[in-house]
Amino acid sequence: MDPLTIEDITILPGRNRKGMTENFSSLTICPGDTISIVGPTGSGKSALINDIEIFAHRDTVTGRTVLVNGEPAPEEFVRDPAKKPVALITQNTKCLADMTAGDFLKMHVRSRKIEDEKIVERTIALANEFTGEKILPEVRMTSLSGGQTRSLMVADAIMISNAPIILLDEIENAGIFKEKVIECLKTHHKALIFVTHDPVVSLLSAKRIVMKNGAVERILEPGEEERDALAEIIRMDRTLCRLRELIRAGEIIRSVNPA
Ligand SMILES: Nc1ncnc2c1ncn2[C@@H]1O[C@H](COP(=O)(O)OP(=O)(O)OP(=O)(O)O)[C@@H](O)[C@H]1O
């Protein structure tokens, strides 16, 4: 096995805010898994994904350890941005490069020594599947909208960074097609970890980590139990998305289910 291939990552418990050990023995995440992290404000959701992003080694505020293939993460995973296997995309992810989207991606492709002339085109095409506002290669990065930026970053993480672990921190209101993103990331066999308050994203995830007081409180695996609720929530969510688009377009809403 290539020493940099990730078979799984394992989270070992740390301590809650009162210094008490967390309530789980270990949690293993494999490529293709989808996991949501939920919990009230300040319960430690971002701290948990931060631990995953930097492969914590009892050196963060939570005292957790995150192993790769059962061992401490290799140094280059933490230090070398080109080898970092984790992409973190948040609502606040912005790109301030004063260049076009096409040139920005080409620069990233060159820095990763990828020889594939079509990869930039494919990355922009994929980003355009995640957003309603089409991104053109000639547009400057600084003039992309929030939704376009997040879509481009997710597409970049899949196609160019080829990161096996993707952390998405509250992107549900970020103007992207979340179901499409989840479906695509599953097909690309990525481990997907969301911090979310969104019912669709939470119920589409196979596991739900419930945070409380800085610690993992419970790990839920509802499976079939939530199947009917999920179908209903997706239907409601599509209605809300349609209404949002009509409101954006300046329409008067006379019916919740317009023709
Ligand atoms: N186990 C812990 N021990 C001590 N401090 C912690 C622990 N977990 C989180 N914290 C601290 O508590 C604060 C809130 O945590 P965090 O930002 O992760 O919460 P959150 O659930 O992401 O909140 P929000 O939903 O508002 O973004 C942070 O300052 C964080 O460093």
TrEMBL record:
Q: Which UniProt keywords apply?
A: ATP-binding, Nucleotide-binding, Transport
| Coiled-coil regions listed | none
Q: Which residues form the ABC transporter domain?
A: 4-239
Short name of one Pfam family for this protein? Answer: ABC_tran
Q: Which domain of life is it from?
A: Archaea
PANTHER family listed in its UniProt record: OSMOPROTECTANT IMPORT ATP-BINDING PROTEIN OSMV
What does the sequence similarity comment in the record state about its family? Belongs to the ABC transporter superfamily.
The entry's protein name is ABC transporter related protein
Species of the source: Methanolacinia petrolearia (strain DSM 11571 / OCM 486 / SEBR 4847) (Methanoplanus petrolearius)
